[in-house]
Amino acid sequence: MTVSSFASRCTGCPLSRRDFLRQGSAVAAGALGALAAPRWLHAAQLAGKTRIRIVYALHAATQPVPDWPHKGFDFKPVMERIEGTLTRQCAGFEFLPSLASGPEQAKKILAEDHAKGGINGYLVYQMNGWNQVVQTMATSGKPVLYADFQYGGSGGFLTYNAVFLLDKIPNVGFLASSNIQDLVEAVKCFQVVKRGGSVSDFVAATARVRRKRTPKPGNLGGKKDEPRCLSADECIKRLRSTKILTIYDQTAGFEPPIAGITFQRIPFAELNDAWAKADKDVLRAVADRWRETAQKIEGVKDATLESSAAMYVGMKKLLDKHRANGITVDCLGGFSAKHIHAYPCLAYHELCNEGLVGGCECDVFSAATVLIGTTLTQGRPGYISDPVIDTGKRQIIYAHCVASNKVFGPQGKANPFQILTHSEDRQGASVRSLLPTGYLTTTVKFDAERKLILFHQAKTVANDPDDRACRTKLCAEPIGDIEKLFTQWHQGGWHRVTFYGDLKDPIHALAEGLGWKIVEEA
Predict the structure, then answer these.
(1) CB atoms within 10 A of CB 212
(2) Which tens digit of pLDDT belongs to each residue from 7-20?
(3) pLDDT tens for residues 138-152?
(4) Tens-digit pLDDT profile for residues 297-319
(5) Residue 36 pLDDT > 80, yes or no?
(6) 95/117 Cα distance (integer angstroms)
(7) Per-residue confidence band for 48, with pLDDT thresholds at 50, 70 and 90
(8) What pairs with residue 384 in β-bridges?
């Protein structure tokens, strides 16, 4: 098996997550169509108005499947706010809302608009993660404004938009902001074409609005933090004696190594057996410790907490048995298919606190990145996340349902954490780690397929408690050009891995030692 085919199973990448969601998304397909226009849109059309079709890319108005923002999320108030705000503040516009779950419905909307005529442009709102709608609307040749619904469509938005930027698609402008006034100003750019400008003029106008409305950089100096790093040669030497266990089906074997790390595949059945046979006294002691140390526990029953503790105890047994330094599991697919009976979020949390690797979603590149960074820093854990970019606050938000609470290493100071359900499906137990603010962080992704290291740095500024999407949300201000951050999501998957500390020089030295290229994302 090639590294490429092995990496394609990473659920931090769009195809794998779509495979996971496809099981449930079919139930929504028949329910979608044109969204009934609200009362204030029923006025007669006025001659000369700029008519914009709003196309919401999502599964359904009420979400039927596990995905960002979460199962059961009601999009209707969100859409009403968007349409109401635009109608009140964009004089001379008419907005026609529709829903589309994928290409077929998008093609139907486009064909009907073409037949009837009169549409001046498209606002495509990515509301869920991977619904492929904007690609169809971009073929219209009309101006398209592509917008991210934060903590909803961010993965697809970043990935698809990066492809548009790479391919220099001339008619697609974009917006990723939590400030609805930024949307208003970007929508007004459609008038550029109405007044005789080109679609490229429209895209340039949206870029000017986005840059103008992005806050200026703040104080980017961080608190004192001096990680003790190995030399590149020593780090590479130690990596050759490390191993990560991978679990994504019922087969066993070995995968291609990454930076000297051995990857051994074991079956779901072996993990499930270790979970079932976990020592009851040990797992109860672990669960009791979580109860005592968690800032709060919400929506998680005692039995679920003990099941999560059994997963941790079982994983530790497997690491000892196989002499491995970490484990990464297709947790979403395994749990939904009942190959495993507890989410491993809390187990990953504990392993990372111990200087080991707990890697989400069988993303081998991210798991390797965690082990490389933890080895380099002599114990600091990596935080695997699904990033979100918000130009309205000049922030990148690192979001996931698990994170360490010992970011400076096993002997370092612990930060508060909470135990909540896994966000997307409101089941199991996961972690919200309230990570330290005011520190410089280094975010990387070791992409073994391309032999490159994606790299950027940011200063941590807040933890966002928003109930949408994953539980832990570390907000940070990027060092450098936030606009450049939008350009690299076509490679390496959605996930990135964040470490506390300034690791720029050590990472560059490591890249030179490995013979890999560094891509500065910001």
Answers:
(1) 9
(2) 434 444 444 433 43
(3) 999 999 999 999 999
(4) 999 999 999 999 999 999 999 99
(5) no
(6) 14
(7) confident
(8) 497
Backbone angles phi, psi at 11, to 5 degrees: -85, 5
Phi, psi of 490 (to 5 degrees): -80, -10
Q: Tokens representing 97?
A: 């809302």
Domains of the chain, by residue range, sit at: 31-213, 232-520
3-state secondary structure 114-173: HHHCCCCEEEEEECCCCCCCHHHHHCCCCCEEEEECCCCCHHHHHHHHHHHHHHCCCCEE
Examine the pLDDT at 37 and tell me if it is beyond 60: no
Place of tokens 């539980």: 471
Is 232-520 a domain of CATH 3.20.14? Answer: yes
Q: What CA–CA distance (Å, rounded) separates 181 from 439?
A: 30
Structure tokens at 408: 């400076």
Nearest-5° Cα angle at 478, 474 to 480: 170
Residues 6+ positions from 250 with CB-CB distance below 8 Å: 267, 268, 269, 339
CATH architecture of 31-213: 3-Layer(aba) Sandwich (3.40)
What is the total residue count of the chain? 522
pLDDT single digits (tens) 66-98: 999 999 999 999 999 999 999 999 999 999 999
Structure token digits, residue 190: 């459609």
Buried-exposed string 317-346: b where 16+ CB fall within 10 A, e elsewhere: bbbeebebbbbbbbbbbbbbeebbebbbbb
Closest CA to 58 of 190, 206, 157: 157
Q: Comparing 31-213 with 232-520, is the CATH topology the same?
A: no
Token code pair at residue 218? 């703040």
Q: Is the pTM of this model over 0.90?
A: yes
Residues 174, 146 contacting (CB under 8 angstroms): yes
The tens digit of pLDDT for each residue in 384-404 reads 999 999 999 999 999 999 999
Least confident of 33-42, 103-112, 163-172: 33-42
Task: Report the candidate in 180, 157, 168 with the shortest Cα–Cα distance to residue 90.
Answer: 180
Residue 378 DSSP one-character state = T
CA 192 to CA 143: how far, in whole Å? Answer: 10
Look up residue 277 and give its two tokens. Answer: 């046979």
C-alpha to C-alpha distance for 522 and 485, rounded to whole angstroms: 5
Distance CA(448)–CA(225), nearest Å, equals 29
